[in-house]
From TrEMBL:
<dbReference type="InterPro" id="IPR013785">
    <property type="entry name" value="Aldolase_TIM"/>
</dbReference>
<dbReference type="InterPro" id="IPR026019">
    <property type="entry name" value="Ribul_P_3_epim"/>
</dbReference>
<keyword id="KW-0170">Cobalt</keyword>
<feature type="binding site">
    <location>
        <begin position="199"/>
        <end position="200"/>
    </location>
    <ligand>
        <name>substrate</name>
    </ligand>
</feature>
<feature type="binding site">
    <location>
        <position position="10"/>
    </location>
    <ligand>
        <name>substrate</name>
    </ligand>
</feature>
<feature type="active site" description="Proton donor">
    <location>
        <position position="177"/>
    </location>
</feature>
<feature type="binding site">
    <location>
        <position position="68"/>
    </location>
    <ligand>
        <name>a divalent metal cation</name>
    </ligand>
</feature>
<dbReference type="InterPro" id="IPR000056">
    <property type="entry name" value="Ribul_P_3_epim-like"/>
</dbReference>
<protein>
    <recommendedName>
        <fullName>Ribulose-phosphate 3-epimerase</fullName>
        <ecNumber>5.1.3.1</ecNumber>
    </recommendedName>
</protein>
<feature type="active site" description="Proton acceptor">
    <location>
        <position position="37"/>
    </location>
</feature>
<dbReference type="GO" id="GO:0006098">
    <property type="term" value="P:pentose-phosphate shunt"/>
</dbReference>
<keyword id="KW-0119">Carbohydrate metabolism</keyword>
<keyword id="KW-0413">Isomerase</keyword>
<feature type="binding site">
    <location>
        <begin position="148"/>
        <end position="151"/>
    </location>
    <ligand>
        <name>substrate</name>
    </ligand>
</feature>
<feature type="binding site">
    <location>
        <position position="35"/>
    </location>
    <ligand>
        <name>a divalent metal cation</name>
    </ligand>
</feature>
<comment type="similarity">
    <text>Belongs to the ribulose-phosphate 3-epimerase family.</text>
</comment>
<feature type="binding site">
    <location>
        <position position="179"/>
    </location>
    <ligand>
        <name>substrate</name>
    </ligand>
</feature>
Amino acid sequence: MAVTPKIAPSMLSSDFANLASEAHRMINYGADWLHMDIMDGHFVPNLTMGAPIIESLRKHTKAYLDCHLMVTNPLDYVESLGKAGASGFTFHVEASKDNWKELIQNIKSQGMKPGVAINPGTSVEEVYPLVESENPVEMVLVMTVEPGFGGQKFMPDMMEKVRILRKKYPSLDIEVDGGLGPSTIDAAASAGANCIVAGSSVFGAPEPAQVISLLRNSVEKAQ
Ligand SMILES: O=C(CO)[C@H](O)[C@H](O)COP(=O)(O)O
Ligand SMILES: [Fe+2]
């Protein structure tokens, strides 16, 4: 398989008042990406951060900022996030039924990598047109919890979606998000996920570097 592991600590579990030092800490511990959860209080019942925070953080780090947009109108965020220095822009398929082609085009024009996320209740077939389009998304994020909050329990039933996607698209980046940690990573890695978001299991660990390395080893071993 041509895909490489990307371990992405979710900054949702960090100390927001010290975001830059938390970001440096995670990169020094071996993280590949920093996962930034952008929530609008409408698509999900929680409000987190937006372009101003991404812009502030970008001044302190060159790290890949993997932005996960849990918002009702993702198109409204593309230009501001692109200018703020976001690296990846992953929108939800549930929020882009009518405009995903325009979204992908605009995300790429802003120099960001487009991805599409699917909620637990959404069937995997819904992302096929976006992956098979002439101008495709470059990552699929399979939610393994209901979006909105960190610290929830991993939903193993979602691994069937990952298995189907990996079989269909051998070189696609497939990300899993929600409840990933030492006790759940093997299920995700063996199903074919290569981009691993982990918030509470990394930030809550006495030795976050060990957890990051364990997550990476599991993905490498499964390939
Ligand atoms: O998108 C998210 C929530 O909607 C977060 O990225 C996710 O929940 C990470 O946190 P944890 O690893 O603690 O589950
Ligand atoms: Fe997320």
